[in-house]
Amino acid sequence: MATQPLEAPATWRTEPRATDALEAALDANPQILPHHSEPWDVSRSDIYVEDRWQPIFAAMRAAGDLNKVQDSPFGPHWNVVSHRAIQHIEALPELYSSEGGITIIQPMSDEKLAELGRERFELPMFIAMDRPKHTGQRRTVAPKFTPSAITEMEAEIRQRTGELLDSLPRREVFDWVDTVSIELTTGMLAILFDFPWKDRRLLTFWSDWAGDTEIALVRDLDIQRQDILREMGAYFMQLWMERANKEPTPDLISMMIHSPAMNQMSPQEFMGNLVLLIVGGNDTTRNTMSGIVHAFDKFPDQRKLFEEQPELIPNAVQECLRYQTPLAHMRRTATADSELFGQTVKAGESLILWYISANRDDNVFDNPDTLDITRENARRHLSFGYGIHRCVGARLAELQLRVLLEEMHKRRMRVHVAGDVERVRANFVHGFRKMEVEITEF
């Protein structure tokens, strides 16, 4: 871990998590979020926090592979809801571009920004770039996630996971999200960045504020988010400066410093790639770690299979990634007019790829709303995306999830949902704020 004393931002100890700030704003003013007038405008966050999105997407899939939303707070866009359509679009990155952003938040014009009295705040990142720039920057960090690099990390991941599980209370209710999911993924990120261990919870704090798309619709919260991310950039710049004149080391910051593709990044691009690595490394794994426990409790027959047949664990990881779908969507922008599954898409139009829908597509997955850890094609899920933008850290996420299940099984741990379950109010990150559980043995 980094040894130099660094100045940590004060806000992370005094400010609420992003989801808590948004809930507090809604409690104070239920009308603070814009109205969604179209029934198939699935950018609305209430359907996710209330876990009632499934029939809406099912109706859309029955009607077609994609449909147009004209009147949305995020602007007009196409909802792409089928597995085949999303794969098709992801396989054509020149025609359907990632440049300019990958969430449903679309860049505002200068005129619109002036009308709202706001400044442009953009964070370029390599997942939101097209080739060739995307290729160079992705290749910089990819060596950290090769099969050999992942294998080298397994012993440490297993040790940390086992020690945490051994510390958990038995027959006492506690919050699995904070105690297990956040702690394990935050610790992994701290190792990847060689981040000061005492400040590791900063990574979760920043991830929450960066990944909550609905905050962009609330002016005061969006300004607060920008300030918090600038503090993040300043903290990481201290780490950058500390390591700039040292020999290369295998942490992600040093890899950026010593890469011709990334060592001349602007401060905004540096911040953007940090957000990408933090959200990608945190939310996907963290919310699946919570989703696994919740799904096993909802489908006790599958939990019993896990307990009786631990050889199913690798496939169970893929099925839980499909069932949970920790990041609900990505955005692409058409660069030319095209015919797409019976619809005419115009150049410049936004297409929202709803992975959360594709992973429940019954043309691909039988009984898709059911967890089935024996599912033969579970690996066909799109939770990591597809094509050139497929998650660079997918293997690491799979390893963390597999090790968690293996270490739980080794200890004969059965985790019961035993209290409050609170989901994230967001249309991008699909996960849990809180999940009270109790541990017994099988």
From TrEMBL:
PROSITE patterns: CYTOCHROME_P450
PANTHER family tied to this protein: CYTOCHROME P450 YJIB-RELATED, P450, PUTATIVE (EUROFUNG)-RELATED
Entry annotated with the keyword Ligase: no
CDD domains: CYP142-like (cd11033)
Family: Belongs to the cytochrome P450 family.
Listed SUPFAM superfamilies: Cytochrome P450
Protein name: Cytochrome P450
InterPro entries the record matches: Cyt_P450 (IPR001128), Cyt_P450_B (IPR002397), Cyt_P450_CS (IPR017972), Cyt_P450_sf (IPR036396)
Keywords: Heme, Iron, Metal-binding, Monooxygenase, Oxidoreductase
One GO MF term attached to the UniProt entry: monooxygenase activity
Gene3D superfamilies: Cytochrome P450
